[in-house]
């Protein structure tokens, strides 16, 4: 019985750290964080990018052809934007890549804003 409770508690803890967000839930979060119209990109642009990058999954993690890794709902890359302690990074967002994998996406949004301020804008994705 103790083992069953422990496994249930562990499963609940894991799901609270990351989750797939619904489209409307993500839209509300992005709007509250000022992304609608940010640098000329509509809320629809941000939602579309998040859908194609991660399917709205805050725990998405993918290894790219160049051996770099992308993290979180916006698939932010460890080569330039975050540090994962496994490979060199400029860490321009000053964030640990692991922090981009949680259901709290404020740091993901802050970093995404930095990325689109560069000349490539959303084409960086």
UniProtKB/TrEMBL annotation:
One of its GO terms (cellular component) is acrosomal vesicle. It holds the Pfam family Lys. Residues 93-111 form the Glycosyl hydrolases family 22 (GH22) domain. Sperm surface membrane protein that may be involved in sperm-egg plasma membrane adhesion and fusion during fertilization. It could be a potential receptor for the egg oligosaccharide residue N-acetylglucosamine, which is present in the extracellular matrix over the egg plasma membrane. The processed form has no detectable bacteriolytic activity in vitro. PANTHER family: LYSOZYME C, SPERM ACROSOME MEMBRANE-ASSOCIATED PROTEIN 3. GO terms for molecular function: lysozyme activity. Residues 1-18 form the signal peptide. SMART domains: LYZ1 (SM00263). Belongs to the glycosyl hydrolase 22 family. This is Sperm acrosome membrane-associated protein 3. SUPFAM superfamilies: Lysozyme-like (SSF53955). One of its GO terms (biological process) is cell wall macromolecule catabolic process. Keywords: Antimicrobial, Bacteriolytic enzyme, Disulfide bond, Glycosidase, Hydrolase, Secreted, Signal. Its EC number is 3.2.1.17. Interacts with ASTL. The gene is Lyz. Coiled coil: none annotated. It comes from Crypturellus undulatus. PROSITE patterns: GLYCOSYL_HYDROL_F22_1 (PS00128), GLYCOSYL_HYDROL_F22_2 (PS51348).
């Amino acid at each position: 019985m103790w083992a069953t409770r422990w496994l249930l508690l562990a499963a609940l803890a894991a799901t609270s750290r990351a989750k797939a967000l619904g489209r409307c839930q993500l839209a509300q979060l992005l709007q509250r964080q000022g992304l609608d119209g940010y640098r000329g990109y509509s809320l629809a642009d941000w939602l579309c990018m998040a859908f194609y990058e991660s399917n709205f999954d805050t725990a998405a993690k993918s290894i790219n052809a160049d051996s770099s890794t992308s993290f979180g709902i916006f698939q932010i890359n460890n080569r330039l934007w975050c540090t994962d302690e496994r490979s060199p990074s400029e860490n321009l967002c000053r964030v640990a890549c692991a922090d981009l994998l949680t259901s709290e996406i404020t740091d993901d949004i802050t970093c995404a804003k930095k990325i689109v301020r560069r000349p490539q804008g959303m084409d960086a994705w």
